[in-house]
Amino acid sequence: MFSRSRRGLFGAILAGSLLQVAFALPAAETQVEKRLPRLFLIGDSTVRNNTRGQVGWGTPLVALFDSSQIKMENRALAGRSSRTFFTEGLWLKVLEDIGPGDYVLMQFGHNDGGGLNDPKGRASLKGTGEETQEVTKEGKQEIVHTYGWYLRRYIRDAKGKGAIPIVLSPIPRNMWQGEKVNRASRDYGKWARESAEAQGALFVDLNEIVAKRYEAEGRTKVQEKFFDPADHTHTKADGALVNAECVVAGLRELKGCALAHYLRAQTNAN
After folding, report:
1. Is there a catalytic annotation at residue 234?
2. 195 part of the active site
3. What's the pLDDT tens digit per position in 102-120?
4. Which DSSP string do the residues of 180-214 spell out, in sequence order?
C-alpha cells in the first residue's frame, strides 16, 4: 500500500502525464490535418525531361500551383510508354504513395507507336480494346495490351486509392500541314478520351488545346522558340511553359474538379 504522501505524489505525476497527453493530442491531430494533397504526373519525356536543353511541361507546371496548398510529384520518365510505365514497375511505386484526395495526371502516347518487334520493346497495341498479344522481351514472355487497356488500369488503380485521375491527350509534335498543326484526334488523342470516358475519369484534350495555341503563335515562332530544328517532339523551355499553361487552361475547364483551386492566383493561362 502507498502512504498518503506517496499516493499524493503518484497522483500528481499521473495528472501531469495526462495533462501532457491532452496537450499532445491536438498537435498530433494538427500534423495529420496538415497533410497536403498531392498531384502526381505520369508520362514520358514530354512531361519530364531535362536533357540538352529539352524541358517537359511538368517542370514549369510546378510554379503554376500554390506549393503551400498542394505538393507536386512529377514521376514521368523519358522513353516510357503506357505499357512500359506499367511493366517496369514505375506505376506500382507511384501507387504506393497515392492517398485519398490526391490527383493523377497521365499523358502517354509518344512512345506507344511502332511495332511490337521494335527492339525498344515499348509499343502497346493500338486502340482501346481487350485484345492482347504475347511477345518475348529480353528472353521473357510478356502479354501486351492495348494503349487504352493500360490507361484504364491506371484510372482504376488511382480511383481504388481514393485519388482523382485525369487523362490528358498527348501534346502535338511540331509537325504541320500548311499553317495547321497535325492532330492526334484519330489515334492516341481519340483513344485517350475513350479510355477516360469508359472509366468515368476526367479528360483534358491537351492535344487540341496546344495545337490551337501553336497555331495562334504561328509556325515560325513555334519552330524557332519552342523546338530545336532537329527535334519535333521535345520542347525547349519556352515551349514547355506554353504547354504547361495549356494544361492549366484545360484543368480550369473541367466541371466538378477542385484541382484548379490550387493554382496560384496570378497564373495567367489562356
Report:
1. yes
2. no
3. 999 999 999 999 889 888 8
4. EEPP-TTTHHHHHHHHHHHTT-EEE-HHHHHHHHH
